[in-house]
Amino acid sequence: xxxxxxxxxxxxxxxxxxxxxxxxxxxxxxxxxxxxxxxxxxxxxxxxxxxxxxxxxxxxxxxxxxxxxxxxxxxxxxxxxxxxxxxxxxxxxxxxxxxxxxxxxxxxxxxxxxxxxxxxxxxxxxxxxxxxxxxxxxxxxxxxxxxxxxxxxxxxxxxxxxxxxxxxxxxxxxxxxxxxxxxxxxxxxxxxxxxxxxxxxxxxxxxxxxxxxxxxxxxxxxxxxxxxxxxxxxxxxxxxxxxxxxxxxxxxxxxxxxxx
Length: 260
Prior knowledge:
The protein is mainly α. The protein has eleven helices and no strands. The protein has one domain. Helix 3 packs across helix 7 (144-162).
């Protein structure tokens, strides 16, 4: 079974390398639906997996200068406390395994549906945000700081419970809040922010006992070469085709999770 986990990590890693999204959105439901891993364990393991794999991506973007650290700081001001508070709340509630799994499954299904929708509307959001006139931009600009912190808090809570939301959802909001930023810089910013968020959320799940370290290593053995290969293939693959396919897949998986 470890070999199958490694193969799954490789395939998901390739998708992430090509499209830039899909890590938690695909890995967690894959572990739950295909391998029968408990939802809470799938989420906890995937969070640590994401923190380790995205560290490399964040480092590359940082070296290229495609990270806006001010935006990362604003997102983290909301997301990191929200993640810690979510873990503490889960610890305090001490839910039984069945109730906890039901909660994770429900939040995961909602997150997948939102992520699939976000992928479909991302280009439209980018177009609308760039069409703002100067007056609207100034009004919009005044609330960027607070709106970014609130976005971080919501993403932090969602990611901690479901491991989904830091990628596509975060990008859609950033495209709307920062229409004059280059998309590649927002991608780098989103990845850099995901590193500490998934690390803290993953460590929280480790404290809750919902991380399978053997599974984590098996996934990493496949995903790291998968991401490397996918990154080199990304320039040759038509993202305009891949993104709708990925979005449709996530929507279908989300509806499937609703009826587990």
